[in-house]
Design a protein that fits this description.
Helix content: 25-40%
Strand order of the largest sheet: 3-2-1-4-5-6-7
Distance between the termini: 9 Å
Bound molecules: 5-O-phosphono-beta-D-ribofuranosylamine
Shape: globular
Number of strands: 7
Length: 192
Amino acid sequence: MALLTGSKKIKTAVFISGSGTNLNSLIKFSKLKKSPISINLIISNNVKSKGLKFGKIHKIKKKIFNFRDSISEKKILTELKKNKIDLICLAGFMKILSRPFISKFKGKILNIHPSLLPKYKGLNTHQRVIENNERYSGCSVHFVNSKLDSGKIILQKKVRILRNDTYKTLAKKILLQEHILYPKAIMKIFSP
Ligand code: GRF
């Protein structure tokens, strides 16, 4: 994807709903010289999202939208345009974006999902993985299309499941890998 022009970084918005640990790792990554992205905007659908604190710490502009109607998406598009955003990273964002919204940012929306896609799309991933006695799980970074967790996969990391793992311990292990995988996937897309 040739979004990188000269030495300018790609202006990126990160969409969150919860703890925002992936947002934090993306912010740290964006500050490295080698990073092709800068984080210029944080969007949350949840005023109580713990991740919003990272916006405050790093002085990144943040906006909260309730997503109860299609007007929210229109307002977001205006905000993205205003801030010249060229890439969207979904990071624990719990709302499904509409088809028209996605088509306006075609090929420019990424997501991280805590499973080895195409297995275990959707919610409660770790619980289902443990219930099915899987030996491996992991995480995937993929492009977003209009079908849930179904866009082209960019990068995945496999994680071994131990006998005494619970869905909570597995979630923790995988989250640590997510923090490494998301920046790696961005490097893979944008580095020449
Ligand atoms: C991560 O496991 C991510 O894969 C999933 O939601 C979780 C978000 O965690 N989509 P955080 O908000 O980045 O800490």
